[in-house]
Design brief:
CATH superfamily of the largest domain: Alpha/Beta hydrolase fold, catalytic domain
Shape: globular
Largest sheet: 10 strands, mixed
Number of strands: 14
CATH architecture of the largest domain: 3-Layer(aba) Sandwich
CATH class of the largest domain: Alpha Beta
CATH topology of the largest domain: Rossmann fold
Structural class: alpha/beta
Number of helices: 16
Distance between the termini: 51 Å
Number of domains: 2
Order of helices and strands: HHEEEEHEEEEHEHEHHHHHEEHHHHEHEH
Helix content: 25-40%
Strand content: 15-25%
Radius of gyration: 22 Å
């Protein structure tokens, strides 16, 4: 069970807010931690079913394979049984048909949301920026599935979903930044080999903690298995954790959060003639990277008149009072912003998606009590378990742990390989992979209303990546009027799918 936000260290609170270890649900009824189990109850090791889906007016016949692969250490010792779901187009030329490996984050979360929420062939319906109505949940064919461009392989990280560590395996060998990349690398190597996909174009798509995983993983596969990738898609990314961890001695994250706070204020503001979201974001971005950053650098040397001027400008942009901003010394902790913006109506705004609003548990509290966006997506697991049993014919009696607090609490955020002196960061891994493979392209997808991994953090990271000038245009950004899980806003899902169509075409063009 997770501690309340205000009772745990700030980095833990931030990382927990990725999509993410459930907060209210976990506190109310913690799921049993997945125990080591060599065999799955009630089913064979693989289930194969056949389906069709229509995307962009084209009907795609595809095979769904739900199964497990046992991964091994670099010494050949079996370590975990990893559950996956693969969707492959029937009759496609494997030498030309791309294959994309997808996963969520946490760390400690299974791949459910990026399957039945994002690009899988079936999608669960959620109300837009509102609490879920509860079961029965409705599943529909996903007209925005990425199957129009690529085969899809969804991977549940060891210790999540139906993936299990094998008996006597020390979790420390799996649960960590570098250890995790090795585990995923072992899975992908085996999948590619067993399914004759070595000559297929290859992509990685990770959400939230899945983005630092992707940075390490693409470099790991390239260096350890000579497996080159064509593209990496980073959804709601954080590669340098300092960019989302404001606090004493680290003013960078206050700068990266401010444009998101301005976007959130724009969304909730009822002021007439408030201008477009993009214009407000551009104004906030210029202020944050210019006068605001300069003011924070000066620290206590900042002249009082300039201090007051900055506070006034901040108030105009992010919607908090000048007095509150001055009392906070110009430095607004994100959880306090989530509480303070709508304090007069006794409401919290969401962390994963600030469009969501929920009533305060403690109207006099300092910081957000819970995440209304998180609690509104509780239906993912129920919808998935019905889908995997009835559509994919994978009937297991094991507990499906969509987000495991046990995995998260044991996670090793230190680095042990490529850049051990830069912890915790993974941007150097991606820079190295892009440098050694100059054909690799990266797409960075960011929601304007994401208070867990603000888009300013990704902008900061990629503007400080240190890439050769000739490689900088290999990075493409996409922005969406939604939060951490951009697919909860259907117009954003539609736009993201369109951006992916263009991205895959551009990467694979001769």
């Amino acid at each position: 069970m997770l501690l309340p936000m205000q009772a745990r260290p700030f980095l833990i609170a931030l990382l927990s807010a990725f999509f993410a270890v459930p907060s209210i649900a976990a506190a109310a009824a913690p799921a049993p931690a997945p125990s080591a189990a060599p065999e799955r109850a009630g089913a064979s090791d693989t289930s194969v079913t056949h389906h069709t889906v229509t995307v962009g007016g084209r009907t795609i016949a595809y095979t769904a394979t739900a199964g497990t692969i046992t991964i091994k250490s670099d010494k050949g010792v079996p370590e975990a049984r990893v559950f996956y779901i693969a969707y492959t187009e029937d009759g496609a030329d494997r030498n030309r048909r791309p294959v994309t490996f997808l996963y969520n984050g946490g760390p400690g979360c299974a791949s459910v949301p990026v399957d039945i929420g994002l690009f899988g062939p079936r999608r669960v319906l959620f109300p837009n920026a509102a609490p879920n109505v509860g079961p029965p949940y409705q599943m529909i064919d996903n007209q925005y599935s990425l199957l129009d461009k690529s085969d899809l392989v969804y991977i549940d990280a060891p210790g999540t979903g139906y993936s299990r560590l094998l008996p006597k395996v020390d979790p420390k060998t799996i649960y960590g930044i570098d250890q995790d990349a090795a585990a995923f690398g072992s899975f992908i190597y085996q999948y590619v080999t067993r399914n004759d996909r070595w000559n297929s174009p290859k992509f990685l798509l990770g959400e939230s903690y899945g983005t630092p995983r992707s940075a390490v993983l693409v470099n790991y596969l390239q260096n350890n298995y000579s497996m080159a990738f064509n593209g990496v898609i980073l959804l709601s990314s954080v590669l340098d954790f300092d960019t989302i961890q404001p606090g004493p001695g680290n003013d960078v994250a206050y700068v990266t959060y401010l444009p998101t706070e301005a976007a959130v204020n724009w969304y909730h503001s009822k002021a007439p003639n408030k201008g477009s979201l993009e214009s407000v974001v551009d104004q906030a971005r210029s202020f944050a990277n210019g006068p605001y950053a300069s003011a924070l650098i000066q620290g206590d040397r900042l002249p009082r008149a300039q201090f007051t001027q900055i506070a006034t400008q901040m108030s105009h942009l992010i919607g908090l009072s000048t007095a509150y901003i001055e009392k906070a010394d110009l430095r607004i902790i994100p959880e306090r912003f989530e509480k303070e913006l709508l304090r007069e109506s006794n409401d919290n705004i969401g962390r994963l998606d600030a469009r969501y609003v929920g009533p305060d548990l403690d109207p006099l509290g300092d910081s957000a009590d819970y995440d209304p966006a998180d609690t509104s997506t509780i239906g993912f697991q129920s919808a998935f378990l019905s889908y995997v049993r009835n559509d994919l014919d994978w009937k297991s009696e094991e507990v499906y742990d969509m987000c495991s607090g046990d995995v998260f609490q044991q996670w090793d955020f230190t680095r042990k390989s490529v850049f051990p002196w830069l912890a915790p960061t993974t941007s150097g891994d991606l820079m190295q992979a892009m440098t050694l493979n100059p054909h690799l392209r990266v797409f960075v997808a960011a929601g304007y209303f994401d208070m867990a991994t603000p888009f300013g953090a990704a902008e900061w990271t990629f503007s400080h990546l240190g890439l050769h000038a000739g490689l900088r245009d290999h990075i493409t950004f996409g922005y969406y009027q939604s939060g951490h899980m951009i697919y909860l806003h259907v117009p954003s899902l539609e736009k993201f799918h369109g951006d992916m169509d263009k991205f895959y075409d551009s990467v694979l063009s001769p």
